[in-house]
Amino acid sequence: MTSLRDAVERSWTGERGWKFAALLLLTAPLSWLWGAVTAWRNRRHDRRPATPIEGIRVISIGNLAVGGTGKTPVSGWVVDALLRRGSRPGVVVSGYGEDELLLHRRWHPDVPVFADRDRASAVGRARAAGAEVAVLDDGFQHRSVARDLDVVLLAAEHPFPGHVMPRGPYREPPEVLRRASAVVITRRTADVDVARQLARSVEQVAPGKVVAGVALLPGRWVDAGGHDVAPPSGPLLAVCAVARPRTFEAQLRAAVGEGTDIVLRGFPDHHDYSEADMRRIVAEAEQGRRTLVSTEKDGVKLARLAPTPPSMCVLCSRIHWDWGEDAFDQLLDSAVEESE
Q: What does pTM read for this prediction?
């Protein structure tokens, strides 16, 4: 299953060969069906717009593609920005995977976090807890919740415009960007010029929108408990359950050096690690005399399991604005002013 998923995702990037051409051909009818269902769903929402939830503002951070665009770190940055403004935010996550929940609670222990597939119910609970602004981590497709600021992330590493699933990585076609308030181009391995070219394409599809650019760069190293540690040295065993494991490997090499001996073990996105998984991971690391390293999303889940090696290192991300931070700040200012 993992190899099939990897092949499908490689076909999205335009990799050549008869196997990838066959995958594109086989997935075309399913992609058409996905697009038809999505169009029907959006027409239904257009006819019956969501009713705003009184007493709380809503900021949605979402995307078009399946994972890998940086929704959770950007949502965390928004929470930081709201706190700096003196606002009282609450975070709403899907409840699908525990990684986002655990990360938000680690980053902001005093900010309430609500996990619920019913986003409207979670926003209501955030209001009852005293939040002035609800930050939806992954909310663009959840149109039953009215929002005051609708931000969509696009990864510079994804082809744009591209096909909808499963022929391509997108949940919706590009024209739906017109209903967004702003589009943020994120990049992990792509050059800033690639991100700016994508921004120009977005401006043609959705003219008049605020379009900003953010780089998600390797940041500090922490241990399983979130405390700062020195960067690892020697051979590494890299473990992750993210949408694009090769991107993590590339960022890891940028952080520790291209010549580092790295073995990558990728699990399905949002994988719920078991203690059996952890025992196998630890055994492989010990047998190869490798330091276990992971992403921040994986680190918070692995740290809850036994046995956790004391030498485990977690590579955090940091946000660097390539352009558009002032325009984005103005949108946040408007949201905060309305909530006062």
A: 0.90
Q: How confident is the model at residue 128 (pLDDT cuts 50, 70, 90)?
A: very high
**Residue 12, both tokens:** 């999205």
Distance CA 142, CA 145 (A): 6
Closest CA to 117 of 88, 87, 89, 138: 138
Burial 5-41 (b: 16+ CB within 10 A, else e): eeebbebbeeeeeeebeebbeebeeebeebbeebeee
Residue 15 has pLDDT above 80, yes or no: no
Alpha carbon dihedral 163, 168, 171, 177, in 10-degree steps, equals -50
pLDDT at 304 over 60: yes
Going 285 to 286 to 291 to 292, the CA torsion angle's sign is: positive
Query: Which pLDDT tens digit goes with each residue over 74-102?
Result: 999 999 999 999 999 999 998 766 788 99
Q: Name the E strands within 257-327.
A: 262-266, 291-295, 313-323
> DSSP E strands: which ranges in 12-148?
57-63, 89-93, 113-115, 133-137
Which spans in 98-191 are helix H? 98-107, 119-128
Q: At which residue do the structure tokens 């004391």 appear?
A: 310
